[in-house]
Amino acid sequence: MDGKPTVWCQQHDRETLEPAPARAFELSSYCSQESAAIVELLMKLPKPDARIKQAVHGAMQWFDTYKLTGLRYERSWRQGERTTRLVEDP
Q1: Separation of alpha carbons 80 and 5, rounded Å
Q2: What is the mean pLDDT of the chain?
Q3: pTM, full prediction
Q4: Phi and psi for 86 in degrees, rounded to 5?
Q5: Contact 73/84 with Cβ under 8 angstroms?
Q6: Is the pLDDT of residue 1 over 70?
Q7: What one-character-per-residue DSSP string does the chain give?
Q8: CA 17/CA 43 separation, integer angstroms
């Protein structure tokens, strides 16, 4: 965002590097779960250079800015059907 590293997207436009849609059912989106895994990997590097540190700090700032609080992600199976929802949870 604005030329600063943040988190990774599901798909990126090849020219602008902005979030881009993929298949018809895949909207453009930032991927928090995958980004968290990448950040964790980067943080385990023994001697990260300035670019790696900038990527980690940018992602952590993005996570802090866009975090959701007071909610819980809940998945369940009922009668053979998967249900996914956000539930209020202080």
Answers
A1: 41
A2: 90
A3: 0.73
A4: -100, 130
A5: yes
A6: no
A7: -TTS----BSSB-TTT--B---STT----B-HHHHHHHHHHHHT-SS--HHHHHHHHHHHHHHHHH---SEEEEEEEETTEEEEEEEE--
A8: 23
Spatial distance between the Cα atoms of 13 and 20, rounded to a whole number of angstroms: 5
Q: Which two tokens stand for residue 18?
A: 């902005």
Residues ≥6 apart with Cβ < 8 Å to 69: none
84 bridge partner residues: 75
* Residues forming a β-bridge with 81: 78
pLDDT, one tens digit per residue, over 23-64 is: 888 888 888 889 999 999 999 999 999 999 999 999 999 999
Between CA 65 and CA 49 the distance in angstroms is 25
